Amino acid sequence: MNSQSSFLRIACFVTAALLSACSEEQQRQEGGEKRSGIVKADEAGWLARQDEIQPVDWLIARQGKSGAKLASEEAHRLRNSLAEASKRFKDSPRMIANRAVQLEQMIKEQGGDETAVMLIAELTRAIAPGHIESFGAAAHQYYNMRKAGFTSERAFDELSKRYGEGG
Q1: From what superkingdom does this record's organism come (predicted)?
Q2: How many domains in the chain?
Q3: What is the DSSP letter of 137?
Q4: Which among 43, 119, 127, 167 would be 20 to 30 A from 134, CA to CA?
């Protein structure tokens, strides 16, 4: 057997293995797209891609669980805030909702009382489009400042100075 024949045989084997792996990955992805059936906020501590509840509805329901029911005008503001955050940070509303809830929980562990709803609005207001790569990065910056002892007002002011329209 010559080297060209060996090369062709190896190339065919590698190609077949790659095609097989792609097919398996596609099947796994398609299987992962099935809906979860989760439609209530108290059923999910985290929003997965396949959850049927909308991020805004999940945040509103979570807010109600904390005893601070959102009035309809506040719910409307949240919808607008989440849409603006999604546009500004180029993250999905689901990702922003998850990160905001995660940040809320981390801050509560440090003794803070910020809500995910408030964090979405304030981080979006403080940071100009294109100045930070994602909502998660903005949340991380904010958390680091809070952990360093900044008040929430001072942390938002600092973010605004660094990454706001004038920053």
Answers
A1: Bacteria
A2: 1
A3: H
A4: 43
